[in-house]
């Protein structure tokens, strides 16, 4: 038994090291000189810690604007998903209407399609609406998702059905039941969905790349990629930019990791 636990912990330790090494290498490269970052064989620790690289990132690009764009888009998309996905999930979990199961299967089928498949139709639609290179193009297509509807529906189904029935007997309408009961009892599920949406929106690269073209509409992912030059890449500055962009997500995960794990578990709740 002790040997099994020892092997288990050794395996977990190796997994943690494998996951942490890219982040550690990114952080160490961000404080190296350009010459050190290009050495072969590579050095692990820098000879002189170049923390000024972080200041250069802010000087050479409008990185604060990229950060603001990313924050704005992420907040609005998260709020939209919480609203629209919870409304749809409430309907699928509590109401009876024709073709209910078929419509839910249609929602689930959207989750099976690769995201890249929707890029061209989304681009054409945004162009026809005149929304290219605007916040609408970055936000509107992500205001709802099949995964969000599925996740919240599973959570709503885990709530006692007697709650809604008792509210109906007291004369409460569906909007009142949704707002006062289901949302107030579903904070863990809503937080879990928020975490998933924030991570996906914060790290989104393809949509901003295709739907925007001006520097003022860039988000953090495009800002990091802008350090890739035609003939050379300034890896220390690129890694410094990557550290700045990933730090909010790391802090969020540290503070809300139990909700993140709970959100994964929610997908297995009764159907």
From TrEMBL:
UniProt-listed InterPro entries: MetI-like, MetI-like_sf
Domain of life: Bacteria
Gene3D superfamilies recorded: MetI-like
Predominant subcellular localization, coarse grouping: membrane
Transmembrane segments: 66-91, 103-126, 138-156, 177-202, 235-256
Domain ABC transmembrane type-1: 67-256
Membrane topology: Multi-pass membrane protein
Keyword tags: Cell membrane, Membrane, Transmembrane, Transmembrane helix, Transport
Compartments (UniProt record): Cell membrane
CDD domains from the UniProt entry: TM_PBP2 (cd06261)
PANTHER family documented for this protein: ABC TRANSPORTER PERMEASE PROTEIN MG189-RELATED, ABC TRANSPORTER PERMEASE PROTEIN MG189-RELATED-RELATED
Family: Belongs to the binding-protein-dependent transport system permease family.
Protein name: Sugar ABC transporter permease
